[in-house]
Each structure stands twice: as C-alpha cells, then as structure tokens.
Design goal:
alpha/beta, 15% strand
Length: 170
C-alpha cells in the first residue's frame, strides 16, 4: 500500500530537510508547496492563496494512484489543510502519516530564520516576526512529532525513520 507522508511545521523548523531525506529513503515523489506556489506566482502573476495546496493534492493523488509514495512538504498550519491531505490519501486507498516538525529552542529557531537562504528561486522568506504571528493550529489528531532543537539533521532523520517504521509495522 502506498503512503502519503504529510509534513507540517513552521518555516525554518527543519521540515524540508527531513522531508527530502524521507523522499530519498522511500524513493517518494517530493511535493514542496513553496516551489509550487512560487511557480504559480511567477507563471500566472496572481496572489496565491490556497491554490498551491489544491494543485498539490491533485498531483499527490495521481502519484499515489500510480503506486508511488508521496512526501508533502508544507507548513500545513491549519486543521482544514491537514484534513484535506488525509482525504487525498484515503480517496487514493493509501495510508498517511502526519509528521510535525518543530524547533522548541526559540533562539535556535530565530537564528535559523535569520541565517537561511531560499532554495526556491524568487521566494521571499518570512521574517522571524512573520513566523511568530503566523496562524498555526494546535494538533487535534495523532502525528509523529520531531523536535529538531540542538540536533543534527541526521539525528532527527534517524528518529523519524524509526517512528515511521514503527507506524508502518516494519
């Protein structure tokens, strides 16, 4: 059975690094909302709201139905989008794993925000103040929680991989 790995977390929490690692580990299709939304801005010249998510749902569903594992890399800050990702998996007869990535050390998180560079051409990265004031709902459903504070990407990946294996019964 195919799996949709649904990543969530604030910018600069370490989410994309882990999502890419999982995509490589499971040879999964990697969908990054930042890339899709920036492409929509560049190609269509309009103010992107939920279009990036809705387009990604369709691409994810196509790939799940083809038998591919899919990694969805997005902030995924509200309950609505979390449910919509889950519904993509359910409608595609796939399993899903919610993964929330946090950085509990606020100073470390702030340093990451202030020192990072965009990987997506043309993407304007949010400031620390914008991240702090962003709407982000408390989780109401089960998920794997990964805290990246004071840990290397490799340490976090190993912990996440073990949690995924436990979830998948491997």
């Amino acid at each position: 059975m195919t799996v949709l790995f649904i990543f969530s977390g604030l910018p600069a929490s370490g989410k994309s690094s882990l999502a890419k690692s999982i995509a490589k580990e499971y040879n999964a299709v990697y969908l990054r909302i930042d890339t899709i939304e920036q492409a929509l801005r560049d190609l269509c010249d309009f103010n992107v709201q939920g279009e990036g998510y809705r387009l990604s749902y369709r691409i994810a569903a196509d790939n799940l139905q083809l038998g591919n594992y899919v990694v969805a890399d997005s902030c995924n800050p509200i309950n609505l989008t979390r449910r919509e990702w889950e519904e993509v998996a359910i409608r595609s007869n796939s399993r899903y794993i919610n993964i929330e990535v946090i950085c509990s050390d606020k100073e470390e998180h702030k340093r990451r925000v202030e020192n990072r560079h965009t990987e997506v051409e043309g993407l304007k990265l949010p400031t620390w103040d914008e991240i702090q004031s962003r709407e982000y709902h408390v989780w109401e459903t089960d998920r794997i929680l990964i805290d990246t504070a004071n840990k290397s990407v490799e340490e976090c990946f190993e912990g996440l991989r073990k949690e995924i294996e436990r979830y998948l019964g491997q």
